[in-house]
Amino acid sequence: APGVGGALAGESAGGRAPTALVVDDGGTTIAEALERRGVAVSAWRRHAVGTQPGAPFPPDGVFDRVVLRLPRGRETLGMLASWLAARTAPDGALWVAGRNDEGIRSAGATLAQAFEEVTSRESRRHCRILACRGPRADVRADPSDWLQCHQVGERSWVSWPGSFAHGRIDPGTALLLSVLPRLAETGDPFARTLDLGCGSGLVAMEVVRLRPGGRLVGLDADALALEAARRNVPELEARCLDASVSIGKGNFTAIVTNPPVHQGSSFDRDLTAAVLTRALAALAPNGILVAVALRGVPLGAMMSATGREVTVAAEDPRYRVWVAR
């Protein structure tokens, strides 16, 4: 909205050029619009963009304006609002944009825990922009304050809100974990392993248990999840990359993955094909790719189409685990 764009640019105290921090823009649109208005823009991208890694935490500094796209989940919003309040100038503002069906209309209560004043600035086309002013001094600004420890069965691990399957083992990963001990009984498949889409490292923890001393690489686009994975699995070599663009060098005896196959809520064949192509190319001769997905995702057929031998290692009413050799 033009009016909001002007308000975002504004002027800083003392008449100097205002500064802004743009969070996970998903592109450069917002940053470029602010720069055209004379704003000095910094960016915090938590997620990798292509081969450019993300950063787990916001950069140091204090900014006149902070721009945030509404994240999923109240706890995640509360965490980000606290971190960003600590980086908002006393006379500055945090601007949060989101769709009505994403929960922007009820986000004010959460944001009010980090800011004295939260107002609706614009509302149109089923979207809303909230302006948050007066950053509170008592926010939980230290990332360690939001790090949570979880116990599921014999497993104990840490993660931050907003990470995939935060605080739980999702059903697909549970099925994948059930297959790994059986695969470890034949040869030495986990001598050099890539956990593709490793999240906070739950599968990597099992690989270390099954094959101590092996080489273990964890790849994820979410830098915050990777930071937790490093803490959960000290042996992990972490790579923050978009797997559809690059997974880096590798000659892996095994790749295990609950792969990214969706954009939003829809199956994305091109994304899935790009990830599979790069994963299969990174396998050593006689290496195996172990992948889990919803039964309706044609993962097995897509791997078979590359000429690999593909078998079903496990399945339940919702998920299926394939092994490609």
Any overview of this molecule?
With 325 residues, this protein is of the alpha/beta class. The protein folds into 2 domains: 2-139, Rossmann fold (3-Layer(aba) Sandwich), CATH 3.40.50.150; 147-324, Rossmann fold. Helix content is 26%, strand content 33%. The protein has helices at residues 2-9, 29-36, 74-85, 108-111, 171-184, 202-210, 223-232, 269-281, 299-304, and strands at 19-23, 40-44, 63-69, 88-99, 115-124, 127-135, 148-152, 155-159, 192-196, 215-220, 237-240, 252-257, 262-263, 266-267, 283-294, 310-315, 319-324. It has a 7-stranded mixed beta sheet. Strand 10, helix 7 (223-232) and strand 11 form a beta-alpha-beta unit. The protein is elongated and about 70 Å long. The chain starts with a helix and ends with a strand. The mean pLDDT is 90.
In brief:
The protein is an alpha/beta fold and 325 residues long. It has helices at 2-9, 29-36, 74-85, 108-111, 171-184, 202-210, 223-232, 269-281, 299-304; strands spanning 19-23, 40-44, 63-69, 88-99, 115-124, 127-135, 148-152, 155-159, 192-196, 215-220, 237-240, 252-257, 262-263, 266-267, 283-294, 310-315, 319-324. It has 2 domains: 2-139, 3-Layer(aba) Sandwich (Rossmann fold), CATH 3.40.50.150; 147-324, Vaccinia Virus protein VP39 (Rossmann fold, 3-Layer(aba) Sandwich), CATH 3.40.50.
What would CATH call the class of the largest domain?
Alpha Beta
Number of helices: 9
| Whole-number total of structural domains | 2
Strand order of the largest sheet: 11-10-9-12-15-17-16
Largest sheet: 7 strands, mixed
State the end-to-end CA separation: 53 Å
CATH architectural category of the largest domain:
3-Layer(aba) Sandwich
Percent of residues in helices: 25-40%
Order of helices and strands: HEHEEHEHEEEEHEHEHEEEEHEHEE
Q: For the record, what is the CATH homologous superfamily label of the largest domain?
A: Vaccinia Virus protein VP39
